[in-house]
Amino acid sequence: MKFLADMGISYRSVNYLSDLGHDALHISELGDIEKEDAEILAQARLDTRVVLTNDLDFGDLLALSGESLPSVVIFRLQDMTSANVNRYLDDILARYSAALNEGVIVSVSEKRIRIRKLPIERF
């Protein structure tokens, strides 16, 4: 699976995913750390990457876009250390890999992991 980690995600988590055999990049590796969230989503869509972030704006932007990709994993954890994030990544990959390929927003908190299929329908 291919991932693109936003600035709030540790390089250690990117390296962890790479060590597991995934194609994982940190946004800073693309050369422009000042990219707007919409540009990051467009890049991830173009490269078929799952966005990893702790920025709630990504979910809102994706919901408003009406697009079915890219998938976004939003970490809403009190403890954003790489060890804790990696523990949740293991769980997400084990349970939701197929869904991540199809287009979802995954919201991760200490209490639960919530998944929502894309595109999000408007009422």
Describe this structure in words.
The protein has four helices and six strands; from the N terminus they run βαβαβαβαββ. The protein is of the alpha/beta class and 123 residues long. It has one domain (2-117). Strands 2-1-3-4-5-6 form a six-stranded mixed β-sheet, sandwiched between helices. β1 (2-5), α1 (11-19) and β2 (23-26) form a beta-alpha-beta unit. The chain is globular.
Estimate the mean pLDDT confidence: 93
Question: What would you report as the Rg, rounded to the nearest angstrom?
Answer: 13 Å
Mind describing the biggest β-sheet? 6 strands, mixed
Q: Runs with pLDDT <50, length 5+?
A: none
Task: Please indicate the count of domains.
Answer: 1
Shape by Cα distribution: globular
Proportion of residues in extended strands: 15-25%
SSE topology string? EHEHEHEHEE
Q: What distance lies between the first and last C-alpha atoms, to the nearest angstrom?
A: 32 Å
Strand order of the largest sheet: 2-1-3-4-5-6
